[in-house]
């Protein structure tokens, strides 16, 4: 199915819920509203013509200046039909939660945990939402957020060095 | 090792089980076993908490992140060119393929077409890297399972290619030979000669590895029927590469979305039937033969030509010119200090590395640095299926199972 057909079929099935569709460099990106994300993903997964059986990755982008600050990105692929789609939903910082897609793709489990770990977006109905790459007791926030300093918090300059030079 | 807490449960033998009426009721408890992060068979620093019932795995919880270096955050601080050496450190066994995957992603973002000769060079080196990766995997997997000889044979042959890499780019592991828009330097006559010699030398050696393993009852016993995953589950978990194809799913990006010089080469994608460790081993061995075939075809078809795309605003000038020509030096300096101006947009580009689909998702807001760079690391995603695949197997199979993913923690933890 070509990208235009994919986009129009999705728009036919959902009159509301789809914010924008964009095509760039041969890739289709569909932004949906957060409350319809699970429903649309379920349609993409179950519909015979869509048949998105493979989850490629789950990612997140931080746009600190926007009203809805975070963006969750799901990249889906169909092994049988050989087409891909990128599904995005915006999440505000005040209510930073989105429906988990672990019930549709089992692989989403670790991928969503990573998004939670790195960006602090929580997933509703996720079976085991814990930090994955950082330690469980890490309290310094979420490192991929743009307000997390890119070059560390300057701790390396505050260590007390042992002065072992003979006096 | 045992914890006297709510996890402790009392089991009774099944009354229907013959002979159980004569046995006293046994009190058994689940055992928590902490494997790693310094276990020699965990390929780096991986910790797995195993819940055991006797010697059977009931549940396993991977604890990742011991090698987390924040590569995705680092990417936001450097220009596109500066990130290439970081990709070496992802999957440090197969740095070339990481470079390749990253450069392809940036080329897609910048819409650059790579010249023909560069595509062939890239494909040849990528396949050499695939051979190294599979040799490394075969050697260490056999070693983990208890067959030591194969390890020595694999590493002996891997060393030839490591020396070849050394001559090609000056490094054995952290190669950084790929560049955005092409490659760093062309093959010399000596390199071509050595590669041709290796192609004649290598296929009989693969037969040798196979003889060692297929006649080894322990190898067969510990791989056949171990860690079976069905095709539906493998797809649902997002597995890729030989781990997915072991279950019989025909998904290889080299065929599904042909790139570089692969569409010009004839090769087959071996598929497994049972989805067990043995099938995944068999696929990797077959891929060794296929890689040799691909390299031979590329060497035959390759014509003379430029090795770098001619897009001065993005691609680097040839090194010789940088030393002798002022404009080239300015170009090089500007590209490394400021980077090139990328268009606004986002792309995802997946490449079939020897472990699976290695993808880069790049969000650009213009300017010289990526706004967000996400690495789709196959090792990480494969670990997501570890609990599912290990349930019910013996504790000694745990090593076989994460071995079968060809896991490298540098890539898994990033």
Topology (SSEs and partners):
The complex is a heterodimer of chains A (167) and B (414).
Chain A: H1 3-13, E1 18-24, E2 27-32, H2 37-46, E3 54-62, E4 70-78, E5 83-91, E6 97-99, H3 108-119, E7 122-124
Parallel strand pairs in A: 2-5, 6-7
Antiparallel strand pairs in A: 1-2, 3-4, 4-5
Chain B: E1 31-35, E2 47-53, E3 56-63, H1 71-75, H2 84-88, H3 95-110, H4 116-145, H5 148-169, E4 178-179, E5 182-183, H6 189-214, H7 217-223, H8 231-236, H9 242-245, H10 253-256, H11 277-301, H12 319-324, H13 326-337, E6 344-352, E7 357-365, E8 372-376, H14 378-383, H15 386-390, H16 397-404, H17 409-413
Antiparallel strand pairs in B: 1-2, 2-3, 4-5, 6-7, 7-8
Characterise the protein shown here.
The complex is a heterodimer of chains A (167) and B (414). Chain A is an alpha/beta fold and 167 residues long. Chain A has helices spanning 3-13, 37-46, 108-119; strands spanning 18-24, 27-32, 54-62, 70-78, 83-91, 97-99, 122-124. Chain A has a single domain (3-157), classed as Beta Polymerase, domain 2 (2-Layer Sandwich). Chain A is 20% helix and 28% strand. Chain A has a 5-stranded mixed beta sheet. In chain A, strand 3 (54-62) and strand 4 form a beta hairpin. Chain A is elongated, with a radius of gyration of 20 Å. The termini of chain A are far apart. In chain B, the strands form 3 sheets. A 3-stranded antiparallel beta sheet of chain B has the order 1-2-3. Helices cover 46% and strands 11% of the residues of chain B. Chain B has a single domain (71-413), classed as Orthogonal Bundle (Cytochrome-c3 Hydrogenase, chain B). The interface between A and B is large, with 37 and 43 residues.
């Amino acid at each position: 199915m070509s990208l235009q057909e994919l986009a129009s079929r999705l728009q036919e099935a959902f009159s509301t819920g789809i914010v924008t569709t964009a095509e760039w460099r041969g890739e289709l990106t569909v932004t949906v509203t957060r409350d319809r994300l699970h429903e649309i993903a379920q349609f993409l997964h179950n519909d015979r013509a869509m048949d998105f059986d493979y989850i490629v990755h789950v990612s997140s982008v931080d746009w600190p200046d926007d009203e809805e600050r975070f963006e969750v990105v799901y990249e889906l692929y169909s092994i049988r039909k050989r087409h891909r789609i990128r599904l995005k939903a915006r999440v505000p910082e005040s209510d930073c939660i989105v429906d988990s897609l672990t019930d549709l793709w089992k692989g989403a489990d670790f991928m969503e945990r990573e998004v939670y770990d790195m960006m602090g977006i929580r997933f509703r109905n996720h079976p085991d939402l814990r930090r994955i790459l950082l330690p469980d007791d890490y309290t310094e926030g979420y490192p991929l957020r743009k307000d997390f300093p890119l070059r560390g918090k300057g701790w390396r300059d505050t260590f007390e060095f042992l002065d072992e030079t003979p006096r | 090792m045992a914890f006297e807490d709510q996890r402790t449960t009392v089991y009774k033998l099944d009354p229907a089980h013959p002979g159980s009426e004569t046995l006293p009721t046994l009190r058994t408890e689940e055992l928590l076993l902490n494997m790693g992060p310094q276990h020699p068979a965990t390929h780096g620093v991986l910790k797995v908490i195993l819940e055991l019932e006797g010697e059977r795995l009931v549940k396993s919880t991977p604890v990742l992140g011991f090698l987390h270096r924040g590569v995705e955050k680092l990417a936001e601080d450097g220009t596109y060119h500066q990130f290439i050496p970081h990709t070496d450190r992802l999957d440090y066994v197969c740095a070339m393929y990481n470079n390749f995957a990253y450069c392809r992603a940036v080329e897609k973002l910048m819409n650059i077409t790579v010249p023909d000769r560069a595509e062939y060079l890239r494909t040849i080196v990528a396949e050499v890297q695939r051979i190294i990766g599979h040799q490394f995997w075969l050697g260490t997997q056999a070693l983990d399972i208890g067959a030591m000889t194969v390890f020595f044979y694999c590493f002996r042959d891997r060393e030839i290619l490591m020396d070849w890499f050394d001559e090609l780019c000056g490094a054995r592991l952290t190669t950084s030979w790929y560049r955005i828009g092409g490659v760093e330097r062309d093959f010399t006559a000596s390199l071509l000669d050595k590669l041709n010699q290796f192609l004649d030398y290598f296929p009989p050696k693969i037969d040798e590895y196979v003889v060692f393993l297929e006649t080894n009852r322990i190898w067969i016993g510990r791989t056949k029927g171990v860690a079976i995953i069905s095709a539906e589950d493998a797809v649902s978990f997002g597995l890729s590469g030989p781990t997915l194809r072991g279950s019989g799913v025909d998904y290889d990006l080299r065929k599904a979305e042909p790139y570089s010089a692969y569409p010009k080469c004839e090769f087959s994608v071996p598929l497994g039937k049972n989805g067990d460790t043995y099938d995944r081993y068999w696929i990797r061995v077959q891929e060794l033969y296929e890689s040799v075939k691909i390299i031979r075809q590329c060497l035959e078809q390759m014509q003379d030509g430029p090795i770098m795309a001619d897009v001065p605003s993005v691609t680097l000038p040839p090194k010789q010119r940088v030393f002798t020509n002022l404009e080239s030096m300015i170009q090089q300096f500007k590209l490394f200090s400021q980077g090139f101006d990328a268009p606004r947009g986002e792309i995802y580009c997946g490449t079939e590395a020897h472990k699976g689909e290695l993808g880069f998702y790049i969000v650009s807001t213009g300017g010289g640095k990526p706004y967000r760079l996400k690495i789709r690391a196959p090792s990480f995603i494969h670990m997501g299926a570890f609990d599912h695949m290990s349930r019910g197997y013996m504790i000694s199979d745990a090593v076989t199972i994460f071995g079968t993913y060809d896991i490298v923690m540098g890539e898994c933890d990033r």
